[in-house]
Design goal:
The complex is a heterodimer of chains A (192) and B (557). Chain A is mainly α and 192 residues long. Among the domains of chain A are: 66 residues, Electron transport complex subunit B, putative Fe-S cluster (3-methyladenine DNA Glycosylase II, Chain A, domain 3), CATH 1.10.15.40; 63 residues, Alpha-Beta Plaits (2-Layer Sandwich), CATH 3.30.70.20. Chain A starts with a helix and ends with a helix. Chain B is of the alpha/beta class and 557 residues long. Among the domains of chain B are: 150 residues, 3-Layer(aba) Sandwich (Rossmann fold); 114 residues, no CATH class; 43 residues, no CATH class. Chain B is 37% helix and 16% strand. In chain B, the strands form four sheets. Chain B has a six-stranded mixed sheet, sandwiched between helices. Chain B has a four-stranded antiparallel sheet with strand order 2-8-7-4, with no helix packed on it. In chain B, strands 11-10-9-12 form a four-stranded parallel sheet, sandwiched between helices. Classes of the chains: A mainly alpha (192), B alpha/beta (557). Chains A and B meet through loops of A and α13 of B.
Chain lengths: 192, 557
């Protein structure tokens, strides 16, 4: 009887200590689900979803506050990936948050720019170079196309230009067999 | 001596059609009126242009400098003037444009003075830099910068150097004709490479359908008299010229997924690359010309020695393009890419220009459903499962396609060649590969955007903290805010500094500004002449009337 109690108590102690040690050793920082969702989001940081950036939106999805169809830059494919990850039903993009557009980058008309620095403050990824009363310019490689710099510009000199196809980023098309229209032959006429 | 040859799985035996273009020796093609030299002709970074519009350039002058180490230089093939540096159509399946230097030859063909380079005494690192600046890249088709491959790596030596003259693809004969014309120089280039790689043996391999080239190489090897150098004739079977397939035939080594042949002590170069290395080091000649086979639906198929940058239309004009040509291909019929633009220039990768006609290549038959016969798997020289790759690529299921090792596919076209359902399998693989690359690019861009966004937020927080700290420090040093001229409003707000330092500072600053404004504002109206005063009064009167007329309740000030 006493032996059994000692054995059980000992076991409980050892297992408890192991669990306690494991919880300290293998502690996860933050929510791993948020990171997984964040990895799917396109990181434009545009705020079209209603949250101030991709990470807050990911947190909101993980917390069940936001739906998975609020990210227009991620597009249909993004919604599908999120649905796959979260085991939810796919649903089309919510038009309230905007529509899916081809990837664009902002371009400053340098002749019109007055150097007010408002766009620099608006850019979430520090892709705009310039200083007060100096011309500003956008580093195209860093621009995510979030359009956040467009509304603050008092001179209205920022345009969103779709990214051009180059030899480097050109993609092979999906193979489609072209049906050729053949001139109709009229057997009656040929015979005549 | 090699006692035994091995074999690779799969492969096909298409009609070689090589004798078309081997009847005539290599012809040196006259210069066109304009040369278009693309800056980006190889794998790696795009070279920076070194010349400006209007500059005079000489033959062999560097016009584009290698951008980083994974890049290669570009040179002027003749003397002349730079008339433009602008995007021009490329010999690429897309037909899109890319930056190019356009040179108008002056007909003098004056060469730039060559810097003497003693490669016998130079360290391997110096030779590699020299080859990079001489623009030497792999001429077998992949255009990988050669200096990167001429590095023995950590082990410091290589077992086998393979010089690839197999040229297995139908119609193409540029390497065959080059081996017949300059066998000694090819072997000399191979020996330089052997020295750089510290390779124990050099195997120059070619298919048994090129007896003339084999004889020429063997005679040259005998005259050079190197025991470690051997000319090996391998059986003709497409794609025996694929690097991995050739290595397997010669050494029996099967390079597994994810590793390189160098991990197994084997390095492989094309014969034309060996010649380019020799010319660059021995004569200081950068890579500005190459041999191009012009064949197919042309009057006089043959090989041309052309300046890089020559428009493709110029070559077809020399060979006599037949009028019933419906398609132009760069490369061979198995792996070549369609050329949408005949004015695109010859680049370092252009080994063959093939004119196609409905009589020569029957138009593709309609694609039928896959019947799962497994012929493609039997033909695949890379030991893949082409039908699996096809299904997953077709269904845009790219992750699964990658699990079936899509990127080990060499796009040789054997599977499509044997497919009884006429499925353009390689088109599906190319589509899937470029989609996967695009997704990887997007992923990289998203990762860098996340990093920058997080850094920006961190910086904003840091700035806020720094500002607060600065303010606290200033408040500690200056307990009471002193107005500049001791005017009443500033004195009023001073006591509130205790509960909100920020507010107090703002108030104090505003008070200072007000005091300053009062002090400055009326200065130019101090000593007015009566005439000036009258003018001011008249203006004020007009202003008043105007505001009354407009009916608006204009502000009093």
């Amino acid at each position: 009887m006493i032996t059994a109690l000692i054995v059980m108590a000992g076991l409980a102690l050892v297992l408890g200590a192991t669990l306690g040690a494991a919880s300290v050793l293998f502690r996860t920082q933050g929510d791993p689900l948020v990171d997984k969702i964040d990895a799917i989001l396109p990181q434009t940081q545009c705020g079209q979803c209603g949250y101030p950036g991709c990470k807050p939106y990911a947190t909101a999805i993980a917390g069940g506050e936001a739906d998975i169809n609020q990210c227009p830059p991620g597009g249909d494919e993004g919604v599908r990936k999120l649905a796959d990850l979260l085991g939810r039903e796919y649903k089309p993009l919510n038009a309230e948050h905007g529509i899916e557009k081809p990837k664009s980058v902002a371009v400053i008309d340098e002749a019109t720019c007055i150097g007010c620095t408002l766009c620099i403050q608006a850019c979430p990824v520090d892709a705009i170079v310039g200083a007060a009363k100096q011309m500003h310019t956008i580093v195209a490689d860093l621009c995510t196309g979030c359009e956040l710099c467009v509304p603050p510009c008092p001179a209205d000199c920022i345009d969103m230009v779709p990214v051009a196809e180059t030899v480097e980023n050109w993609k092979w098309r999906y193979p489609v067999f072209e049906l050729k229209v053949q001139p109709a032959t009229l057997p009656a006429k040929e015979a005549a | 001596m090699l006692s035994k040859l091995f074999s690779f799985n799969g492969g096909v035996k298409p009609d070689p059609n090589k004798s078309l273009s081997t009847r005539e020796p290599i012809a040196r093609l006259a210069l066109p009126p304009q040369l278009v030299i693309p800056l980006h002709q190889h794998i790696g970074g795009t070279p920076r242009p070194l010349v400006h519009v209007g500059d005079k350039v000489l033959r062999g002058q560097r016009i584009g400098a290698a951008d980083g180490n994974v890049s290669s230089a570009v040179h002027a093939p003749t003397s002349g003037h730079v008339v433009a540096i602008e995007p021009r159509p490329m010999p690429h399946a897309s037909g899109l444009s890319s930056p190019a230097v356009v040179i108008e030859p002056d007909g003098l063909d004056a060469a730039i003075e060559r810097e003497p380079f003693d490669w016998h005494a130079a360290a391997p690192g110096e030779i590699r830099d020299f080859l990079r600046d001489a623009g030497v890249v792999g001429l077998g088709g992949a255009v990988f910068p050669s200096h990167l491959k001429l590095n023995p790596g950590k082990s410091g030596h290589t077992d086998t150097l393979v010089i690839n003259g197999a040229e297995c693809e139908p119609f193409i004969t540029c390497d065959d004709m080059l081996m017949r014309a300059e066998p000694e120089n090819i072997l000399r280039g191979a020996l330089i490479m052997q020295r750089m790689l510290a390779a124990k043996q050099v195997l120059v391999a070619l298919e048994d359908n090129k007896p003339e080239a084999a004889a020429a190489l063997k005679a040259a090897a005998q005259s050079l008299g190197h025991a470690s150098l051997e000319v090996v004739v391998v059986p003709t079977r497409y794609p025996a010229g694929g690097a991995k397939q050739l290595i397997r035939v010669l050494t029996g080594i099967e390079v597994p997924h994810g590793s390189r042949s160098t991990d197994y002590g084997v390095q492989c170069f094309n014969v034309a690359t060996a010649l380019a290395v020799w010319r660059a080091l021995e004569h200081g000649e950068p890579l500005t010309r190459r041999i191009v086979t012009v064949t197919g639906n042309v009057e006089r198929p043959r090989n041309f020695d052309v300046a890089i940058g020559t428009p493709i239309s110029h070559l077809f004009a020399a060979a006599g393009l037949k009028p019933d040509t419906d398609k132009l291909i760069m490369g061979g019929p198995m792996m070549g890419i369609p050329l949408p633009n005949i004015d695109a220039p010859v680049v370092k990768a252009t080994n063959c220009l093939l004119a196609s006609s409905p009589a020569l290549f029957a138009p593709p038959e309609p694609e039928l459903p896959c019947i799962r016969c497994g012929e493609c798997a039997r033909a695949c020289p890379a030991d893949l499962q082409p039908f699996e790759l096809y299904w997953h690529s077709r269904a845009r299921n790219f992750g699964r396609a990658q699990e079936y090792k899509l990127f080990d596919c060499i796009e040789c076209g054997c599977c499509a060649y044997v497919c009884p359902s006429h499925i353009p399998l390689v088109d599906y693989y190319r589509y899937a590969k470029s989609e996967i690359w695009a997704r990887e690019r997007d992923k990289d861009a998203a990762d860098s955007a996340r990093e920058r966004f997080e850094f920006r937020n961190w910086r904003a927080d840091r700035e806020k903290e720094e500002k607060a700290a600065k303010l606290a420090a200033r408040n500690a040093a200056k307990p009471a805010v002193k107005p500049t001229d001791g005017s009443a409003p500033a004195a009023d707000v001073a006591p509130s500094a205790g509960d909100d330092p920020m507010k107090a500072l703002i108030e104090a600053a505003m008070a200072r500004a007000r005091a300053q404004k009062e002090a400055v504002a009326a200065k130019n109206t101090d000593a007015l002449t009566p005439a000036q005063q009258a003018q001011i009064d008249a203006a004020e009167e007009r202003r008043k009337r105007a505001s009354e007329l407009s009916g608006s309740n204009a502000p009093a000030e």
